[in-house]
TrEMBL record, chain A:
<dbReference type="GO" id="GO:0007059">
    <property type="term" value="P:chromosome segregation"/>
</dbReference>
<dbReference type="GO" id="GO:0051604">
    <property type="term" value="P:protein maturation"/>
</dbReference>
<dbReference type="InterPro" id="IPR002744">
    <property type="entry name" value="MIP18-like"/>
</dbReference>
<dbReference type="InterPro" id="IPR039796">
    <property type="entry name" value="MIP18"/>
</dbReference>
<feature type="domain" description="MIP18 family-like">
    <location>
        <begin position="56"/>
        <end position="119"/>
    </location>
</feature>
<dbReference type="Pfam" id="PF01883">
    <property type="entry name" value="FeS_assembly_P"/>
</dbReference>
<comment type="similarity">
    <text>Belongs to the MIP18 family.</text>
</comment>
<protein>
    <recommendedName>
        <fullName>MIP18 family-like domain-containing protein</fullName>
    </recommendedName>
</protein>
<keyword id="KW-0159">Chromosome partition</keyword>
Automatic annotation (TrEMBL), chain B:
<comment type="similarity">
    <text>Belongs to the WD repeat CIA1 family.</text>
</comment>
<dbReference type="InterPro" id="IPR019775">
    <property type="entry name" value="WD40_repeat_CS"/>
</dbReference>
<keyword id="KW-0677">Repeat</keyword>
<feature type="repeat" description="WD">
    <location>
        <begin position="16"/>
        <end position="48"/>
    </location>
</feature>
<comment type="function">
    <text>Essential component of the cytosolic iron-sulfur (Fe/S) protein assembly machinery. Required for the maturation of extramitochondrial Fe/S proteins.</text>
</comment>
<dbReference type="InterPro" id="IPR020472">
    <property type="entry name" value="WD40_PAC1"/>
</dbReference>
<feature type="repeat" description="WD">
    <location>
        <begin position="63"/>
        <end position="95"/>
    </location>
</feature>
<dbReference type="Pfam" id="PF00400">
    <property type="entry name" value="WD40"/>
</dbReference>
<dbReference type="InterPro" id="IPR036322">
    <property type="entry name" value="WD40_repeat_dom_sf"/>
</dbReference>
Amino acid sequence: MVSGLINENPTVYERKERRVRTDSTNTDEFSVEPIDQLEIFDILFFDFAIVNIHHIRDIRDPEHPYSLEQLKVLTEDSVEVDDLKSYVRVTFTPTVEHCSMATIIGLSVRVKLMRSLPPRYKIDIRVAPGSHATEAALNKQLNDKERVAAALENPNLVEMVDECLSPSFE
Amino acid sequence: MDLMEKNLELIEVQKLEGHTDRVWNAAWNPVSPILASCSGDNSVRIWEQSSLSRSWSCKTVLEETHTRTVRSCSWSPSGKLLATASFDGTTAIWEDLGDEFECISTLEGHENEVKSVSWNASGSYLATCSRDKSVWIWEVLGGNEYDCASVLNGHTQDVKMVLWHPTLDVLFSCSYDNTIKVVWWSEDDDGDYQCVQTLDESTNGHSSTVWAISFNAAGDKMVTCSDDLTLKIWGADISMMHSGEGYAPWTHLCTLSGYHDRTIFSTHWSSDDIIASGAGDDAIGLFVDSKQHDPVNGPSYNLLLKKEKAHEMDINSVQWSPSKESRLLASASDDGMVKIWQLETTP
């Protein structure tokens, strides 16, 4: 029985300062601001905790409550967005090459975006090329809408995803 | 009558609201002006057209039976029974008793989500398929009894849809494994269903998940659609099959690409030869045979029209009405709506 963590010693990077938007010229409270890379970056980086799960029954035991930014799972270049086309693609790098967490991370990123973006958005999630042993298979599964829908009807998976999406500890 | 020469438009006739989650599938009753839709809200809605006002309204909601998403629904050829396939692993059979529907049977056996259900032309067999990679064939016995006749394990991944041929007892299935499989009854080895053909990349097949299949009225052509963003047209010499000369293989005739830039989830071939497609780009495409007889390249199909933003989100299902009166098309979407469209010539 494996009792250790999947990733015992993750590399932790410095967290960037939260950028303040300096454009205060738009005072029209009813104007619609286009969604850009920075906004999606904020959605993903600051409200996301990563939890290492080695035993399904112990989901309440977060081992590394660092953000995905700190673990370099997501970087600035991870997000490609086109608000006019209502399209976003997020590329993430799992911390370990055959990390079984990759499915949970990918699913969590999708759920976070689905909950934060307008319903018109088309969301593609993929692992960074070369970062995972079964990259093609993983990408296919993460982008099969029917599979994702069925997975999100599984209460155990939803619980794990919600754990990942719970606010960070700092 | 050449459709390409007319000014055609897909006009929205009515928007059917009521489902509280995405609508996965819509199915027209073969004999009455009734439409069934099924949803991620675990229910099935039956919509009926009023003979007076011609408008559609929700006649009844079939709920409290499936405990998870209802993924697809299919009417029996008589129009009296409705089969519903669910992520809860079961397929329910409902009987239309006039003022209400009663669940008369529940087919169990699949290990996980059931994706699709189909009745054969005579209503004597049902087929179901699942993420468990199998296709089950059920025999319709009297007295609301259904018996499992065969379990087929040919696909190597999640099976997305099953469909019986419109005139022959030949079963087609398409899958996440990128292939389409053809199964028919063989009398060898005490008789059982066997896979007689697999349409894969090596036979000009799809390069990603195949989501749907549809036949033309004659049953000698079929269209398939895929996550690879294409529609493919296939043909077979079915007169050979009808005359008992054995199995006639399906061959690739044409690939339609560049019309959708997101997964094509559904396609349906109308009785008057218009192919409809519904995709993740929120658009409905309509295609017709170009009627250009090219002896080298075979038949080709042209885009008749593309209805952009037909819905606000992905389109999961497109179905032509069997009604001969008008060209009605139903579409079901992630936006929770079912829409009824009419293909009309504009003055």
